Amino acid sequence: xxxINVKGKMEITELGFDEIKSNLKTYLKGQTQFTxxxxxxxxxxxxxxxxxxxTHYNAFLANMLANEMFLDTAQKRNSVASHAKAxxxxxxxxKAPVAYLEVQVNDATGANIVMPAGYAFSTTINGVGYNFxxxxxxxxxxxxxxxxxxxxxxxxxxxxxWTTTRFTVDLNDADQRFVIPNDGVDISTLSxxxxxxxxxxxxxxxxxxxxxxDITASTKAYFVQETVDNQWEVYFGDGIIGDAVDExxxxxxxxxxxxxxxxxxxxxxxASGGISGFNDITTTVISVAEGGAVPETMESIKLSAxxxxxxxxxxxxxxxxxxxxxxxYPNVESIAVWGGEYNNPAVxxxxxxxxxxxxxxTLTESTKSSIVSTLENYNVASITPVILxxxxxxxxxxxxxxxxxTITAKTSENLxxxxxxxxxxxxxxxxxxxxxxxxxxPFTTMIDEVDPAILSNITTIKMSKTxxxxxxxxxxxxxxxxxxxxHPHSGHAATTAGTxxxxxxxxxxxxxxxxxxxxxxxxxxxxxxxxxxxxxxxKVYKAAPVGTVIYTTSGILVGGTVTLTKENIASVEDYDGxxxxxxxxxxxxxxxxxxxxxxxxxxxxxxxxxxxxxVDTIASGASDAGVNYTTVSSxxx
Length: 637
What we know:
Blueprint: H1 17-29, H2 42-68, H3 77-86, E1 98-105, E2 113-115, E3 120-125, E4 128-133, E5 138-140, E6 148-149, E7 155-159, E8 161-168, E9 178-180, E10 185-195, E11 204-208, E12 221-226, E13 232-236, E14 250-257, E15 270-271, E16 281-290, H4 298-311, H5 318-328, E17 332-339, E18 350-357, H6 365-375, E19 384-388, E20 391-403, H7 412-430, H8 440-448, E21 454-467, E22 474-480, E23 505-507, E24 510-512, E25 519-523, E26 528-535, E27 538-541, E28 547-550, E29 561-572, E30 583-587, E31 600-604, E32 610-615
Parallel strand pairs: 11-12, 18-19, 20-31, 20-32
Antiparallel strand pairs: 1-6, 1-7, 1-16, 2-5, 3-4, 3-15, 4-7, 8-14, 9-13, 10-11, 10-14, 12-13, 17-18, 20-21, 21-30, 22-29, 23-30, 24-29, 25-26, 26-27, 26-28, 28-29
Helix pairs in contact: 1-2, 3-4, 4-5
């Protein structure tokens, strides 16, 4: 409240412009010198406006300055980067897509040939051309008469332009800084070399400093930091921590300027010119381009910096790996890490990492190997990192809704289309990442809120996973849903009429080796999986069960585990209107809340999603509303 307190001092609790002006006016009216003054007059009113504006600006500035003093509240990127630096954390720069190529020079002769740094390969994506460059000079000799760079494993090439910037060290210039003057720099490709003088013919290579533990006064190391202008600065040691630069030294910075994620997915490359004068060059793609990413966001820096400080550049806990892996491979959409003791089955001495990339669905083997190799710099003791691909469990909702036809012109089909679109968006926003739980209550609430005319919905849930059979070979398969399955009593749904699948498990079709009939799987309610074919209007079963299903976790038995003992499958039937190489297993969960475990990722199956609606006869005032009102079962059949 504006006014004068008991000591005659002005209230300063309000910071809005109008409140400040009112406080100033009340304060001045309380002074004997201004008893008869008209504070609404033009002169004093303008003075009060000026004072109020000045106070308001200062309060705003003080608030902003206070915010920028702390990592959690900072709003400017340079402030966030500065606080992160104090925690020993360097934000991740723009990342160039990297592909691995095997390059064979067919017409080469001689003792060796050299591919220089900056040698480029061209590719095209959606009609746009991109260059991928080699970032280090490579020399090879012939092997069995062949000149091949990256034989078998490929050499890494990065999308972008190979650029070099030079600086002459001037120790008399106290403000000299070695700032890379370009945007879009992938700092992981940075190469730093020094020449003693401009006339020197030899260079010294400096390596990035990753830890102060191993840096001595003579260590040729460099440091990097993000600048106020969101560029990158290179700096060197002082002769105590790291080797210091001298007057007249030439600092040479070479790096890739990239278009970030634009060239992710490139699959075809052409050499841009000759290598050591030879022009008959064949490129083979070992792994397609991936890993391109924009610079780390402020939100990510705020989250990662404290964890990085806690990790102290070593990987001991699962959280340490979850923090360090994205700094090695920034193309991480989501990540899950768990110790081998929590694996199924338990494997001690290993840590498991599952990564969903921003581009694509899985990592290439070369990318996995690169990540594991880099993690060796952080690992302690004898822990072995293992990278697993994510496994997708699809959720299949069946939605039946009621709506009030008197408050909308939309038909049930119109509303069903809106619900279907909303479910797809909900899946994108709330699922499709590691550790993102499917929560039934918010899901059904979202459906009710799609349109004001929708009054209620009954939604049932099933879930499915796929496996790829080894055709023509008797093989054991284990499909882990990691969630308990619905099994209210022994023998539940064991018998069905006609050709409908029994139990709570069903599958897509397949054929056995030596048998032209199409078979399907179902369970018998007793934990056995049976295979059957359809003959006319009846099901014909194979004589013996073909596998087992564990409905509920008990001791070491994990609920939701489906095991096919020894299946010799010849072919897979199509489903969802497309040719398939996988068999789909569909089950009914015990709970409508589905939890992704370890490397599981949940996703709504929008292809098999079912949405239907009908008019609510009571809400719409139908004449027979109280007599013929129908409801839908809340249970799966």
